[in-house]
Amino acid sequence: xxxxxxxxxxxxxxxxxxxxxxxxxxxxxxxxxxxxxxxxxxxxxxxxxxxxxxxxxxxxxxxxxxxxxxxxxxxxxxxxxxxxxxxxxxxxxxxxxxxxxxxxxxxxxxxxxxxxxxxxxxxxxxxxxxxxxxxxxxxxxxxxxxxxxxxxxxxxxxxxxxxxxxxxxxxxxxxxx
Length: 177
Known about the structure:
Layout: H1 3-9, H2 23-35, E1 46-51, H3 54-67, E2 81-87, H4 98-116, E3 120-124, H5 126-132, H6 135-139, E4 148-156
Antiparallel strand pairs: 1-2, 2-4, 3-4
Helix pairs in contact: 2-4, 3-5
């Protein structure tokens, strides 16, 4: 896909077939996460966890439902993979949000690569916040010391298609100085 075609075709996928992406597609998605820029070149302050274990996915899904106070919700949408980005927070007040911004950039790169590979993806924030309220669940992730889950992206095959969409010009306020 061309860059702008990929960008205008990307959308949140909330329905999955239950099948994982092909190995070739996953390799492209993981290359995209490695290619992402991060604040101050702090690659050592970020950690990627690929979660495919159905029991752990179910527990994260339940933690997200609890966080949203919707017991019947499934905030992972039945995706067979969650790629979780964790950060070693604490770059100081001047760069307080840089760790989260970097984590978001990693997720966005993966979502664009997933779109390019015709793989469904969806940004995940709330389920991660719910998971962070369950220390036993976070411990199951075997994260390096000091790392905190920040955000993630679901991945999986979908029956939805990807096509460029019209992007409204006035969607965001823009000031030119």
